[in-house]
Specification:
Layout (H helix, E strand, L loop, with lengths): L5 E6 L5 H16 L12 H11 L5 E8 L2 E9 L11 E9 L8 H15 L4 E7 L3 H9 L3 E12 L2 E11 L3 H9 L24 E9 L2 E6 L2 E9 L2 H10 L5 E5 H6 L5 H10 L4 E4 L5 H9 L4 E4 L1 H5 L1 H10 L4 E8 L2 E4 L4 E6 H11 L3 E6 L11 H10 L4 E4 L5 H13 L3 E6 L1 H4 L5 H8 L3
Parallel strand pairs: 4-5, 8-11, 8-19, 11-12, 12-13, 13-14, 14-17, 17-18, 18-19
Antiparallel strand pairs: 1-2, 2-3, 3-4, 5-7, 6-7, 8-9, 9-10, 14-15, 15-16
């Protein structure tokens, strides 16, 4: 085959209908052949089109395609960490990499991988990572031939056909010879002894944190619960839309909405109130509570909700979370609510044996855009956030963590800001009762957090 017929490119604008059709056909063929994007069964052309169209809206994702004689036959993505996660700023993950089975054996995979490596270098990345099922022999051989180093194995990487499949982790250092030597010599040995000298202390992050004012809905009204108990609710307003407008006028950039009745019922209940909030403000609305299937997710995103928070379903149906995160990149958030580190579900009525950090890692792997972490015992109590648990979770993840539960004073937000300077994975805070009670002025909260 003439290598000149093979071309690779980064997709920077919407694909033409013919290109989109070819891409979806290639993905479907790869999935049916046992690989590609983690789907076990093709989700359908409409879901795939939404997936790729949504990807172009996510700044941290770059889509590359490979063509043979002008037709798209494969693709891959470069996924960068969030800008706030400075520890991994020089790394990039190669993911969603595939070539359709009808186009293999022609050098397309190597051409695509080389183009993506060059793209990563152009971004200024020093390390490129990827992971592969151990059953994908051709992909493993390709990455090894491109000098990717196998550094680890995940024993429970995937469940396919009732069987557990391991995963292999690879990395490639992109820095030049001299720069690579500096990188390798600067890797500090663990427990090397002694604290760093003042001049060697790590620089503190200066990224702003986002304030998410909360509107919790019960029977169509704005309320706040104490420790998640529906019987212990304080009523604040009968006009949720007006409340959202007040937040916007005060300078907020986002609003956090929870359908409390829906969380207990397992389906959206406060529908008119939620719709009124979306219509009343131009603020991005992130919504949670009782959203437990793709139909509900699609309904609310089409209605103008910016991000969907999946809570109980993250524990009970993680495959739905994975499917939703692929179909709507950047628009799916996992809400992890815990009592003393154990995950609670069904509107906080049930407590599982699952550790919050374990669930967070699973959700990161599923592709969610962020984690909202709430320590239930502090929620509505105004005694301060659980900074220790929040920071511990953020250190383990490469996606943002939003803190929730317990903000009662401006000092609590200042404490979060100080922690976030050394734990940049913390990206914001949800505040409810303290705003409604007047314990914290919105202006002061925005100033402290540096809302972005």
């Amino acid at each position: 085959m003439d290598i000149m017929t093979v071309t690779c490119e980064r997709v920077v604008s919407s694909l033409s209908p013919d290109d989109m059709e070819a891409l979806c056909e290639a993905v479907t063929a790869a999935i049916l052949d046992g690989g590609g994007f983690g789907w076990l069964q093709p989700p359908g052309s409409q879901a795939l089109e939404r997936y790729f169209e949504g990807m172009l809206l996510v700044p941290e994702r770059s889509l590359y395609v490979v063509r043979d004689k002008g037709m798209i036959c494969g693709a891959g993505q470069l996924a960068r960490p969030p800008s706030s996660y400075e520890a991994h700023a020089a790394t990039v993950n190669l993911t969603g990499f595939f070539v359709a089975p009808y186009a293999r054996g022609r050098g397309l995979g190597r051409a695509l991988a080389n183009a993506m490596i060059q793209g990563a270098k152009a971004m200024g990345c020093k390390v490129i990572n990827c992971d592969v099922r151990e059953t994908h022999d051709a992909a493993i051989g390709l990455f090894r031939s491109l000098d990717f180093e196998h550094w680890g194995t995940h024993p429970y990487y995937a469940r396919i056909g009732g069987q557990t499949v391991r995963g292999l982790f690879f990395s490639k250092l992109l820095a030049g010879e001299h720069e690579a030597a500096r990188w390798q010599s600067s890797i500090a040995a663990p427990d090397a002894g002694g604290a760093p000298a003042p001049s060697e202390a790590p620089a503190k992050a200066t990224h702003g944190l986002t304030l998410y004012p909360a509107i919790d809905l019960k029977d169509g009204a704005c309320v706040r619960l104490r420790r998640g108990e529906m019987e212990d609710a304080t009523h604040y307003s009968d006009d949720p839309a007006a409340q959202a407008r007040l937040f916007e006028e005060a300078g907020c950039r986002h609003v956090h909405v929870v359908d409390l009745n829906g969380a207990f019922a397992g389906k959206s209940t406060n529908i008119p109130a939620i719709e009124s909030i979306v219509k009343a403000t131009s603020l991005p609305v992130q919504l949670g509570g009782g959203i437990r299937d793709m139909a509900a997710i699609e309904r609310w995103l089409e209605a103008g909700v910016s991000r969907i928070i999946l809570g109980s379903v993250a524990v009970k149906d993680p495959e739905l979370v994975r499917q939703a995160a692929r179909a709507f990149p950047g628009q799916i958030v996992a809400g992890i609510d815990a009592r003393q580190g154990r995950v609670a579900t069904e509107g906080w009525a049930e407590v599982s044996e699952l550790e919050a950090n374990d669930l967070a890692l699973r959700m990161e792997d599923a592709g969610v855009a962020a984690i909202i972490f709430t320590e239930i015992t502090r929620d509505g109590m105004l005694a301060g956030l659980d900074l220790e648990q929040t920071a511990d979770m953020a250190r383990r993840l490469s996606i943002p963590v939003i803190a929730s539960g317990g903000v009662g004073t401006l000092d609590h937000l200042k404490d979060l800001r100080e922690i976030a300077r050394t734990v940049p994975g913390i990206s914001g805070a949800i505040v409810g009762r303290a705003l409604y009670d007047g314990r914290i002025a919105l202006k002061d909260a925005l100033e402290v957090l540096g809302s972005c």
